[in-house]
Every structure is written in C-alpha cells, then in structure tokens.
Write a structure and sequence with these properties.
Helix 6 packs across helix 8. The protein has two domains: 3-120, Response regulator (Rossmann fold, 3-Layer(aba) Sandwich); 127-225, Orthogonal Bundle (Arc Repressor Mutant, subunit A), CATH 1.10.10. Helix content is 43%, strand content 21%. With 228 residues, it is an alpha/beta fold.
Amino acid sequence: MYKLLLVDDDTEVLEVNKKFFEEKNCKVSVCSKASCAEEMVESVNPDCILLDVMMPEIDGYTLCRRIRKITNVPILFLSGKISEDDKIEGFEAGADDYIEKPYSLREVYVRIVANIRRNAKTVPQKSSMIIDLDPFYIDKEQHKFFYGNEEIPISNKEYELILFLANNANKEISFEEIGIYLWGSYIETDRRNVMVNVSRLRKKILDQTGVDNLIETVWSKGYKLVHK
C-alpha cells in the first residue's frame, strides 16, 4: 500500500483523484492549502507527493523547493502550465516528473509506481544487509520486509520464512526443508504448519501490495519464491 499526498487548491480535483488512487489500494491524504503542505509531509510521511503548480499563497515550484528540504520522496507535478520553461522550472525545483493536464489517472498511477520503485533502490545504505527482490526487499539488519518504501508488517516466523525463500529465490524448496529451517525438525504432520505460515504470509503480501505471485506452490513438494 503506497501512501500518497495530493496538494491542489481545487477540491473537486482532489476528491476525484483521491477516489481513484484509493481504488488502487493507496492510502491517500489531501491538502487544499499549500501553506499546510509541509506539515502534512512530516506527519503523513508519504511515499509520493503530487503537486499542482498554480495555487494561491504559495506556487507549486516554491512549495516543491521547501518540501525537498525535508524529504527525498518522489514529487510529481500535475499542471496545466505546459511550456518548456514551465517544465524546466519544475524539474529545477526538485520534481521527479511533470505531467500535463488533462491527464490520464491510469498513466499518473503508473508513473507514481515507477518513481516510488526507482526511489526505493536508493534507500538502503548497507547493500550487504539488503536482499533486493524488486519491488520487494528484505532488510536483514532491521529484520523487516518492504514493498517499495512501505513496510509489510509480518511476524518473526513469517520473516524467517520469507528470508529463507528469498535466499533460495527461484529454487524449489520442499516442505521438509522449510520445516527444518523454521523449527529445527520435521515430521510429515508438520506440513500443515508450513502451509499455514505460507498462506498467512501470502495473504499479507496480497492485502498490502496486490501481488499474488511472489511465492508459487510447487505441487505436492513445497514452494518457490519467484524473482526475475
């Protein structure tokens, strides 16, 4: 689930955009006053920010420069100002993308995802402690599992499970191998415990990201984490 912050003085536009992105399983915060946007950035901690350019009080370019001082998350302009100079000013202000109005919300969403994923690759500082499963990654130092910048809350046992599968990505792992890794021993009746833990982990991944094919079932044998 991505967290988005939409900043636009047009409340009707905010309402339409908010509804669309929420249908994409995003958590959306809106701000109709540029003067309040900086505070919302700090309180919401969004994964991506969408800005209008022409707003009263503070224009989008100025706001973008201010926001850049407190966060490095992607900033996308959605603007009716479409001259070459307008776009250059937007990028010089710190934007990652500049989308002309009228726009397709489907295209905007794809650009949001692309920018978040690109930004996520620059987040980890200790590469030896990161398992990159783009767009997922595992932080072994923090014992956490992420989709882009968004943490997927999982239990300790689920963390051990995803770590084991990730360390053996694209390999078929048997129920027995998983059971021994998780509990130190295995008997045939433990297969049910393995299946339950995998099912719970899959459900959390699906509910938060919409991805349902990260962990594949290997019929009658076990599972495989698929990473291309």
